[in-house]
Amino acid sequence: MAACGVGLLIRLSLRVQRSQVQRPLRRLLSCPGTVAADLRREEQSSGNAETGSEDRTPKKRFSVVQNERREQAQRTVLIHCPNNINEKKFLKFLSQHGPVNTHFFYESFGLYAVVEFCQKESVTSLQNITRTPSLGPEAAIPFKSRYFNLKLRTSVNQTSELSSIQCSNQSSPSSKKLYQLLCCAESVDDQLNTLLREFQLTEENTRLRYLTCSLIEDVAAAYFPDCAVRPFGSSVNSFGKLGCDLDMFLDLDEIGKFTAQKTSGNFLMEFQVKNVPSERVATQKILSVIGECLDQFGPGCVGVQRILNARCPLVRFSHQASGFQCDLTANNRIALKSSELLYMYGALDSRVRALVFSVRCWARAHSLTSSIPGAWITNFSLTMMVIFFLQRRSPPILPTLDYLKTLADAEDKCIIEGHNCTFVRDLNRIKPSGNTETLELLLKEFFEYFGNFAFNKNSINIRQGREQNKPESSPLHIQNPFETSLNISKNVSQSQLQKFVDLARESAWILHQEGKDRPSPSSNQPWGLAALLLPSVTNNVPLSKKKKKPASERIKNLLDSIKSSGAENSTATNGRRAISTQA
Ligand code: GTP
Ligand code: MG
């Protein structure tokens, strides 16, 4: 590809932080379908959360977003750079292989650049001039990936130019910063929107997630050339927090489709294949081989564990360069469909994501959720609870899954492994809710609702949007929306559920009291959401003892201790008074 001037070639740089970059982007590009247009839509939809969903911007289908992002990732490379790199010269060097569409830098045990070319051929051109390193006494496994290491031929002192590189932030704000932001907010609604803005995945982080999947796809493609590795879960369902894991799904269905299209006439060609006793065994065998491959040849893939006997077999590993903890599954199409459903719910009303993020952060701050599997409530279950609660409002803020099914047309029909997963996929066909309740009210009511929910006899069911009798005796029953005989919270113990209920009641009480007597913003006292994220004073007291103490006394103690320790101490990370929201 002929070299052109860098100024013309670099159409859009994402190298500065999101908050700084969005304004110039808006001026630069206004055509639909561009990254800037997407960003603008995101900005709008998170900015108008006070009342109903008045945002009438046409919203993209999940599959369209997934396909666009995947294609974008295939034109993208990841480069480990020397710290003293000169950005201008770096881009000029890359543009010899074709125009660069966007790029950004980030830090993760070194400096990395994510570079998206305009054309796929540029990646091949770059690969063609790249050498396999000689490592002295060690030997390299020659794998031509899209993850490169850039070295400077001569070590030039470029300190003066170093300052020009701005790195995109890939992590959530510190407890201290979050605390300050929440305390400076104008209202509880503002607090919830602030928390969403600070924790949601940035454009750059999302790109890095799709790129990581694409890099893993290159490895898997060595065995299955037409496979796709697709992200699912919170990386794509719009509820992902910076730092959340990267759930991937090895999709081999395209291979079957391709051969079916090629078949014609009276002849039917089939591949000779090996047969195994069940789909599960096939999945285990495939993941075993891909896991081995990632372990032996996957650049940057470390700590590879093959967890093949789990209910959903998976390969778990760390992708060092991106810093993502990855879970690779196969034959997991229903989970992808669940992600699409959550994406739809998140996009239908701007209050949904703000509420889900706050509830997730609240649960994490009080150790109701954990990154270690166990008897805890999961983020997925919490999201279902928020959706269910919003379906129960009057008028409802979210429609039921059964209603979404009635809006579906023939193209939306989707049956996976005998389960009906049909629902309308065009967001623009769903009427916005007329409900105008504030986030503050919704948060308080959420805690009140679940603080008094009859968990002993009722099940949460987003398909019908109403409580149902529990079909089994698990403490918490949340019906799996597609595999309706399954309970997604079967793992939750009675004591964990009780802890959730106690904390929900306490939080409802705090918000209720504050409604009457809110500390002034200048008093430096944690209030609203900030107060809810502080560890409960009763956290370590056995439940039986807690019940004896009147709630008012507990809250008084909490507020007294906040007053006496002051704002400075409240932000200290000594584990006692820090707001802990990290996943
Ligand atoms: P994070 O905690 O931010 O990672 O949220 P997440 O939604 O990505 O959850 P997780 O990584 O645990 O699971 C990934 C996806 O798998 C979820 O979004 C669901 O689509 C699906 N999933 C998780 N747990 C269950 C479950 O118990 N049952 C079913 N059917 N699907 C689940
Ligand atoms: Mg996840």
UniProtKB/TrEMBL annotation:
Occurrences of domain RL (ranges): 62-130
Organism: Capra hircus (Goat)
Domain PAP-associated as annotated: residue spans: 442-485
Record's compositionally biased regions (Polar residues): 562-583
The keyword Metal-binding is annotated on this UniProt entry: yes
Signal peptide boundaries: none
Gene Ontology CC entries for this record: mitochondrion; nucleoplasm
GO molecular function list: ATP binding; magnesium ion binding; manganese ion binding; poly(A) RNA polymerase activity; protein homodimerization activity; UTP binding
Gene3D superfamilies on file: 1.10.1410.10, Beta Polymerase, domain 2 (3.30.460.10)
Protein origin, superkingdom: Eukaryota
Cofactor list: Mg(2+); Mn(2+)
Cited PANTHER family: POLY A POLYMERASE CID PAP -RELATED (PTHR12271), POLY(A) RNA POLYMERASE, MITOCHONDRIAL (PTHR12271:SF133)
Region (Disordered): 40-69, 560-583
Pfam families xref list: MTPAP-like_central, PAP_assoc, RL
Protein name: Mitochondrial poly(A) polymerase
Keyword annotations of the record: Magnesium, Metal-binding, Transferase
Biological process terms in GO annotation: histone mRNA catabolic process; mitochondrial mRNA polyadenylation; mitochondrial RNA 3'-end processing
Taxonomic lineage of the native organism: Eukaryota, Metazoa, Chordata, Craniata, Vertebrata
Domain Poly(A) RNA polymerase mitochondrial-like central palm, chain residue ranges per copy: 189-346
